[in-house]
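Contributing new complexes? Match this layout with calcium ion.
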Amino acid sequence: MTAVDVARALVFVILSVLGGMVQAIAADTPQRLCETYGGVPPGFGVAREADADRAGLVAINGGRFRMGSTDGYPEEREVHNVRVAPFWIDRHEVTNAQFAVFVRATGYVTRAERKPSAEEFPGVAANRLVPGSAVFVSPKGAEHLRGAYAWWRWMPGADWRHPEGPDSDIRSRGNHPVVHIAFEDALAYAKWLGRDLPTEAQWEYAARGGLDGASYPWGNTPDAKSRRANTWQGRFPYEDEGRDGHKGTAPVGCYPANGFGLFDVVGNVWEWTRDIYQDRHGPDAVEDPLLVKLPGAKAGPVTAARVIKGGSFLCAPDFCVRYRPSARQPQDALYGTAHVGFRTVLNTRK
Ligand SMILES: [Ca+2]
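Output block (do not edit by hand):
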């Protein structure tokens, strides 16, 4: 072996070791979005860009999957087979910055910003019919004994621009998910982009990221080290220890993407779907039952309670283990609250 060969061998060994180290670092450092991201995907809201209608979307191949779970809450049953056609879905939850682009372009005013009508709230005094939304407030002492969900407080002046009430703002939260969005607000945003809200089946299929039947988007192991999603650590509803790095909403994309490249499918904020809530799943479906009615089908009145998915920063292991793809909850379509957001889909087979 010549000196040149020895040198080459040494270089090879060094490069191999370095390469292994780089791979190890890459494997240990999951893809993240939030640190350098302003909240608006390239081309978004710019009509002249050829692919603007797909800005921020990820293509999802269709497929058949087992929807629901027998391990979770009763409403997640029965496990049944559904086939979804190919579709596109937002890589991340709709952000404040994106919603601001929509509002600037259209002048849209959300429900939480409008004065509620007397017809909707018969018997409520006129001076109490003021714009607002429900904000989470940690109860003090035995305050929670006032009743279930006593940690929600109706706050006049709370809306998407003022998530914790009139004295709060979103100036440094352009890349956080927009909240206090009612179902009709989310739908209006989606329609403005020529899109829709996901059906529950689309949402669940996308959230599973290809891991059919798994408990979580990343597999079957709980997130013991609080590195995979923005949830609640500590005793709910008193103290959020924030061991996952965030109390309240987090910028989108701070946690590893799932197998389809989607961020925050569980945790951070609940997400609206089109489906009207029923407390059990239907039977096996050859195709997603809501989508076979397309095009132009109306999926029930805009005021009907809808399914929300994914759980939120308020989901804690001792209270609400709903940061799982199969988990579901009804949400009054008229109210978004501080922990409900959404993402959009583009159905290409219209
Ligand atoms: Ca958290």
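Reviewers usually confirm one structural detail per submission. For this one: Residues 3-28 form the longest helix (26 residues).
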